[in-house]
Amino acid sequence: MGTAIGRQEFMIQHAVYCESGSDPRTISDGEVDDDGKPRRTGIVWTASAHIITAIIGSGVLSLAWGMAQLGWIAGIGILLTFSVITYYTSSLLADCYRYPKSASGKRNYTYMAAVNAYLGENMRKVCGLFQFLILSGATIGYTITASVSLVAIRKSNCFHKRGHGAPCMIGLGITEILVSQIPNFHKLSWLSIVAAIMSFAYSSIGLGLAFTKVISGHGHRTTLTGVEVGVDVTAAEKIWTIFRAIGDMAFACAYSVILIEIQDTLRSSPPENKAMKKANMIAILTSTTFYLMCGCFGYAAFGNKAPGNMLTGFGFYEPFWLIDLANVCIVVHLVGAYQVLAQPIFSTFESWASMRWPNSEFVNTEYPLRIGSKKFNFSINFLRLTGRTTFVVVATLLAMALPFFNEILALLGAISYGPMTVYFPVEMHIAQNKIKRLSIRGLALQLLNLVCFLVSIAAASGAIQGMGHGLRASKPFQYKE
């Protein structure tokens, strides 16, 4: 037991060092929180920016396609249902930041720590597996999206100059390696705010172009049930695309996987769970409003032939400069979103390495960055430099090998929504409030778990089927258009 406690204390001290850039023993009492870490400065608006950066990402671009597969009634209904469930379960999860649930309860710095406190070690391991699969997969998905947007910029200019048949290509990579050296979540607020602004910008451009197309009378045919069997697709294709569309919409609404990590940036007053619930409400209302407008106007503009990616599927060709601007905004946004999702992976690996090799200079030493006689408020750590660079390179290679936009989003939505957005928050809520499983409330919560589990299975099946079909129809390292 003593060894375990010693390791935990070391990890806390290492986290203090990484986040402050100085030895924790030099921090005065007035500059620390109740756990000895540097005083947190996050507020509702910074937490909202983190959430919006993570949530309004790749998902918003696929909603017109999703609406086309589901139709008006099911598309709007499913999107609203996912948003309501996400807000409810995220509020449950926000209450699990401290254990026990009180202002003096012990802080849980990560999602896995919260699961461990309420559900035990075995469930923590299961949660960790899902979390790292989801976050790693999301970085691959965001790399695909950002790369496709860069390709679209090149193609847009080529199309404008030489017609719609000119082949053009451009890539993405070095930027994420550089930005990944930002030490932790607490240093990311400025990047999240910039990224959130970018997400509003490109969503608004896509929405405006779709709205213009609709009111000009150039919109395409839509139906209450989406693509038609026998006209657009076969019966089997309809079922699979419905499953993938559901997965895309689930992905667009899922951010609980990093909620606790975001909550750990909030200042202590007002209580973190109350501030986080406000941030949840702001982010969900904002994102759902944008989702409905982009999905509905995108579907109205393109009809049942809506492209998988509204801004890079070239449903729009002109004005080419505005489409270029939108795709630049996508790239900037996804650079930030990538970091928001990757930071929990980086933090866990680096904390483990510090615990495993506490005396290693390669692992633990921070080298302040100097240019001439000027010292910058930034340091280099060799483990961070090599480990994060390797992660970005591997994620980029996997993104190049599996370039399937909608299928990747659907699979990520399936993996993340059922377990991380619904199951673990519900189970922690039951444990926290000692709810009897055979009570009316307990049965209702278990029914919610079951329904979302079945939805996740269906979405994952559709995504895997689509990826299999795509691999047979195209080659790795080539984006499927």
From TrEMBL:
The chain crosses the membrane at residues 43-63, 70-89, 129-153, 188-211, 281-300, 320-341, 382-402, 408-426, 447-467. GO terms for cellular component: endomembrane system; membrane. Residues 42-466 form the Amino acid transporter transmembrane domain. One of its GO terms (biological process) is auxin-activated signaling pathway. Pfam families: Aa_trans. It is a multi-pass membrane protein. InterPro entries: AA_transpt_TM. Its main location: membrane. It is found in: Endomembrane system. Carrier protein involved in proton-driven auxin influx. Mediates the formation of auxin gradient from developing leaves (site of auxin biosynthesis) to tips by contributing to the loading of auxin in vascular tissues and facilitating acropetal (base to tip) auxin transport within inner tissues of the root apex, and basipetal (tip to base) auxin transport within outer tissues of the root apex. May be involved in lateral roots and nodules formation. Belongs to the amino acid/polyamine transporter 2 family. Amino acid/auxin permease (AAAP) (TC 2.A.18.1) subfamily. This is Amino acid transporter transmembrane domain-containing protein. It comes from Populus trichocarpa (Western balsam poplar).
